[in-house]
Design brief:
Order of helices and strands: EEHEEEEHEEEHH
Radius of gyration: 16 Å
Distance between the termini: 44 Å
Structural class: alpha+beta
Strand content: 35-45%
Largest sheet: 7 strands, mixed
Mean pLDDT: 93
Number of helices: 4
Length: about 180
Amino acid sequence: MEEWLIWVNELDQEIGYGEKMKTHREERLHRAFSIFLYDPQTRKLLLHQRAAGKYHSGGLWTNACCSHPRRGEEIRDAAVRRLKEELGITLDTNAALQELGSFQYYQKYTNCAEHEIDHVFFLSVNAQRLSLYPDPEEIAQLRWVTFSELKHWMSECPQDFTAWFAKALELVLREKKGIEIL
């Protein structure tokens, strides 16, 4: 099935649509999202390692879930859909999934580029009550990490992370000032 992404201008206004791989090969600015799952009891974030077979960034670590809304799909609905598809998490669309903001970035790869306005979502969860069923075509492995572990890992091995992860994390830390990060 072809997946049609939403092309946007610099103001994140829809200007057209394009097939997913064509959009990336042509380096078109398009809408995307990144979801962070945080357990306030353990003070840990869920990270996933992208499957090796992904069209870019295979084997790199990033936030719990990331993808694109499809043509005609609201971004929040897309986030709920992808949590189910990638991690097996079923959410009601009225769940406490909070959109924190967005940012634009560009990253060139060998045969394509990510040129996105990335909307960042945040969800507090109880990791002990959360059943995760990662899609092996999307996710190689999962890891819960504290912010201090993550800060150390990112400073020692920045090449382990996707191009968008640091910017998305920065937005989470700025917008969730009350979050327990130690």
